[in-house]
Amino acid sequence: MLIHGFGGSHEAWVPVLDGLVAEARTHAVDLPGHAASIDYPDAGPPKTAVAAVLDAMTRRGVERFHLAGHSLGGAVATLIALSAPQRVLSLTLLAPGGFGPEINFRLLKRFASAREPTEMKHVLEGMFGFRRAIPDSVVEHVLGIRAKRGQVELLQRFADGMTRDGRQGVIPRASLATLAMPVRVLWGKQDNVLPAHSADNLPDNCAVTLLAETGHMLIDEAPDAVIGMLRAQIGAVSSAAP
Prior knowledge:
Helix content: 25-40%
CATH superfamily: Alpha/Beta hydrolase fold, catalytic domain
């Protein structure tokens, strides 16, 4: 199960899907309030997203699954693993939200409000590594989502609710230490949305990899690294199975 970040959709995972098809059957959803799930009831609170993802997998007949999430999706994935650990075979987190109080709330609010290609590209320049090109496909993806009536206004509301006094809520390290499944965290050293030092002092059960010259948009900037980590997670669980 692949969970996208704030302002995205299931299509955010397209750059890595071809590298996973030989390893596992993949599922991706639109989080409540995003894209095809824009009208999902009570969208916004993390608990709604957690319930929505678990319900989606139940309806698809999948009881246990590998779980990966990016940014906001990483926070949701972590909360799923904490609330239903018996269902999660492995947890892969790409620059996850909720791992430290610091968050570039001003950039996220600009991202939520952007409506035009040039404006969006300027915003995305603050989300990518300093020397990374901004693919037109990413600009088209995030703007395509905003074509739905009410999407921009909903994203603005979500952005306003993400922080309190410019800081985000933090998932306790003690809670992360209880996770028994393999947990891997991937972060770009040039992340200007959620700083890479948010991964400092994680419990020993969380394996952390930092990527040089890489920003927040890991799926687009470093698809091979993401594919490699997801394959390793699948392989580790498969080799440990009786």
